[in-house]
Amino acid sequence: MGRFGVTEILIILAVVLLLFGGKKIPELMKGLGSGIKEFKNAAKDDQPTAKKEEEEVK
Questions:
Q1: Integer Cα distance of 10 and 17 in angstroms
Q2: 15: exposed, middle or buried (C-beta count within 10 Å: 0-12, 13-18, 19+)?
Q3: Most buried by CB count within 10 Å: which residue of 25, 30, 34, 40?
Q4: What is the pTM for the complete model shown?
Q5: How far is it, in rounded angstroms, from Cα 9 to Cα 15?
């Protein structure tokens, strides 16, 4: 139950391709990428606020 080998990764990719089909996968990846980008932007925007709150406490 440790690391994935090449065979396991290929099997997982084949199952994903069978479940979602070739046309749906690019849409899923685009949605995933935009979600990660929004999360990073939100986390970056939240950091200065947290620093200001720490300075106010001191």
A1: 10
A2: exposed
A3: 25
A4: 0.50
A5: 10
From first to last of its 58 residues, the chain has per-residue pLDDT tens of 678 899 999 999 899 888 888 888 888 889 999 999 999 998 888 776 656 666 666 6
Contact in structure between 48 and 40 (CB atoms under 8 Å)? no
Contact 15, 23 (CB under 8 A): no
28, 20 in Cβ contact below 8 A? Answer: yes
Q: Half-sphere exposure (CA, 13 Å, Cβ side) for 14? A: 6
